Amino acid sequence: MRDDGRDLETADKWEVQLRKGCLELAILAALWDGKLYGLEVLRRLESDSDLIVSEGTVYPLLSRLKALGLVQSEWVESDAGHPRKYYALTSAGRPRVRQMAGMWTRFSSSMSRLLAPLAKGK
Amino acid sequence: MAMSDDMSGDAQPRIETYLSRLRQRLRGVNDRDAREIVEELRSHIMDKAAASGKASGESAGEVHGELTPAAIDAALAGLGSPEELASQYITDDLLAQAEVSRWPLRILKSLFRWASLSVAGFFVLIGSIGGYFFGTVFILVAVAKLFHPRTAGLWVFPNGGGDFEMSFRLGFGSAPAGGRDLLGCWIIPIGWLVGCGLVMLTTYITVRFMRQYRKSLVLPQG
Question: In this complex, do A39 and B99 lie within 8 Å of one another by their Cβ atoms?
């Protein structure tokens, strides 16, 4: 019983690490189609992936991606009565996210091949 | 009507208290960046609070409802405490700086700020100072050997109590009595190799620790 609980905890930790690892790629990918402000990035992650992350994580990460030159930001006045900070991929960010996506696709397809027997229940 | 015009009397002080605590803890982040962070989060809190009370089917941008204290509290809770949030901004800032420039002085400057925030940062700072110090000593002795070939180097000499001491000497003054220059002219290539190696290894390990620490701060929900 106790071992089962420990196994579940280990599985949870592994899943958390897995999600953390692809957060940067997910944020950059969310910006592929155009500029978004922080809350829209969060909503995009929620709707298009299982990556539901805390708001306090996404904003510092956007700030770091900007410092790295992968995204740029601009303030835009909104109908809501206050300006919003929009993020967009830079000319350096677009090839970088394409490269990361390629790596991810190759990695996930090779993992899928490896995991195929498990899915079939063999 | 703009949201800010509809804001309830209780809502604004809650937001300002949170942002003020955050601003205080963003020490080390330059003023312009800190102001942008605060303004961006203010905008987020207002959007999030408005969205939480919105009628179904409307997007956040279309909502012009009143911001209730409960909605504001929920928006602030979503961001976490100002201390945790500031810590994430600062370590992200440090990591970005360290990745843009691997210059040891830049790394050390970032480490001093990290050390002021966490125990982990303090220990990494101590280790890095040690690594950079010994790396620099090796390089300095290698350079000094070119100018003081008879006295600079890695020396072993009797300390008077029957034991021997080993020390790096830059060659100013006379050679220690009864001492022996262990490496001779080999200190020049060895000093450069070991010194540069230590500096690069220290930088590599430091950035790795920073990345690990940053990852540990990411808090996925669900």
Answer: no
